[in-house]
Amino acid sequence: MKNIYIYLKTLLIAFVFILQNCSIVNALICSKTDPINCLQFEPLARLWNVSNEEVPKLLDLEKILISIDSKLQPLLNGLSFGGTYIDIKAGKINVNTVDQSKVNEIRNKMKNDQDFVNFMAANNTLSQLNSTFNQTFILAQQFNITNYEINIEPEFNNVVIYLNMHDGKNKKFIENVETLNPSPIIKPLSNKEKEEILFNSSTLVEKRNIYILVDGGNKIVSVNDHANGTLACSAGFWMKKNNEDFIVTAGHCPDHFPSLFYVYSFQDNHLIGPMNSRFIGSYDMGFIKKTNTNIMLRPVIRQFDIINLRFLQFFIVGSSEITSCGIHICKAGQITGIGCGFVSAINSISDFDDRVLIRTIVVANMPNNDGDSGGSMFRYNGLNGQSNLADAVDIHIGGIPGIQAVGMPINIAFELGYPLVTI
C-alpha cells in the first residue's frame, strides 16, 4: 500500500509540473492589441522609460546592437580607442575615440553597420585604462584596503573606485591613486553603505515553514548556529551534475560549511539538501544538492514586482554571456523582488569581506539589498515578442543598495561542471 501511495504521489508531482509549465505552449506574446501579455515587461519598461508595448521592439534592437558590438570590439585598437557602450534609447553603440584619424578605417570595416556606430571624442584609451586599473589593484593590495570595488566603466571613459573615503587607512591609497594617469574617479560611500556593501548579504530570519516548489528568486534558508533563527538568501538556477540536481546560489550564504538548506514558506519545513560544494575565493558560488524527493525544482524564475504588486514568472530557455556595457540585466531576489538595471562594467575587481572577487559584472540602477544574494540574474529573451522567456546570465552576489548590484557570471558554473536546466 505504501508503494502504491509513493507511486501515485510521484505521478501527481509530475502532472502538476506539466500543468505549471504548459503555458510555455500558450506563449505570452506582447502586442498593442493584447496588452495583458505585456505586463511581464513592466520592470524593463520602467528601466527604459517606455511603455510595455514598446519593449519587444527595443529588445530586438538591443540584440542587433550586441551583435554589432561583438564585431566592432576586436577592430578597435586599444591605443586609439577607449571602449564601447550601448545606448539603447539612441539605438547606437558609442565608441570612445581618442585618435580621430582611425575613425574612417573602422567605418570602412563596418560599412553595413556604420549607422549604428557613434564615435565620441574621449581622453583615455583602453590601454591607459587597463594600466590604471592594474596599478589601482596593486596599490589596493599594497595598502591593504578592504571593502572596495574597482571598475573600468566605458560610459565614464575611466576607472571608477567605490570605497569609504572616511576610513583612515584609505587616505594613503587615495593619495597614491590620484597620481595615476588617468586619475580614477573615486565615488565615496557613507558608513552605512560601507556596512551594506559587504558581500555577507544574507539576512537573519525566524525559523518558519517551507514550500515544496523551488524557483529562481525564492527565499532559501540555512540554520544559523549563532542565533535562534536561520539565515536567508535567494535561489538562483536549477543546475545538473552527474545526473544529480542542484540549486546554484551565492557561496557566502551559509555562516558555516557544509550547511543544510530549506525552502521558506509559512506552512511546513521542507529540506532541500546540503550545500557541500562552494567556491568563495576569487568566485562566490555555492551548489545545494537536492536530496529531498518531495522538493521540485523548476527552470523558472518567479518573484514579486514590488512596484506593481504582482508576481511575475519567467521560463529559463537558455543562457547568455555579457560582453557589452549599456545592456539590460534583471534580478529576482527575495528582498527587493524583480528589478532591472544597465550593465556599467564587465571588467571589475571587488574586495568584500576579505575576499577578492574577479570576473564580476556590475549593474547600475538595480534594486538590491541584504538577502537578495544568490538570486537569479537574467535577460529578457523576447523571442517573437514573448514576455515570459528569460536567459540566465549571473548569480547576484551583493552590491551597494540604491547604487548598483554585482553578479557572478553563470558561465563560471558551466566551467565548474554544472550545466543549466532549461525548458
Automatic annotation (TrEMBL):
Secretion signal span: 1-27
SUPFAM superfamilies linked: Trypsin-like serine proteases
UniProt lineage: Eukaryota, Fungi, Fungi incertae sedis, Mucoromycota, Glomeromycotina
Keyword tags: Signal
Protein's UniProt name: Peptidase S1 domain-containing protein
Record InterPro entries: Peptidase_S1_PA, Peptidase_S1_PA_chymotrypsin
Membrane-spanning intervals of the chain: none
Protein origin, superkingdom: Eukaryota
